[in-house]
Design goal:
single chain; about 100 residues; alpha+beta; 3-stranded antiparallel β-sheet; two-stranded antiparallel ribbon; 5 strands
Length: about 100
């Protein structure tokens, strides 16, 4: 079952959960709210901790979900390089691949 979950910042995402899981989350939220506990805040923290574990387990960088550019020569990831002569985009496979592009407009 697909549900829309919202956090305190009003951002939302779709997630598929079993109906039983959704009902259990609702029940925990109801009981927790009677005790003045924000169950969604705790759920968000738990999911964040799980994400950190998975990123470490599968060697995923924290920013890998952001838009990635790839080298037109070797198809490796491009990265921004800061140097004394200015910033530029360079291939992450350097020195094997020497592709670079100036960042100046």
């Amino acid at each position: 079952m697909e549900r829309r979950l919202k956090n305190q910042d009003k951002k939302s995402f779709s997630i598929s959960l079993k109906e039983e899981t959704v009902e259990r989350i609702r029940h925990v939220r109801k009981v927790a709210s009677q005790k003045n506990v924000d169950a969604y805040k705790e759920l968000d923290y738990t999911i964040f901790q799980w994400l950190l574990e998975q990123e470490k387990k599968y060697n995923i960088g924290r920013n890998d979900h952001k838009e990635t550019m790839f080298c037109p020569k070797c198809n490796s990831k491009l990265r921004i390089v800061h140097s004394e002569n200015g910033d530029f985009i360079g291939c992450s496979s350097f020195p094997k691949c020497k592709y670079s592009k100036n960042l100046k407009a």
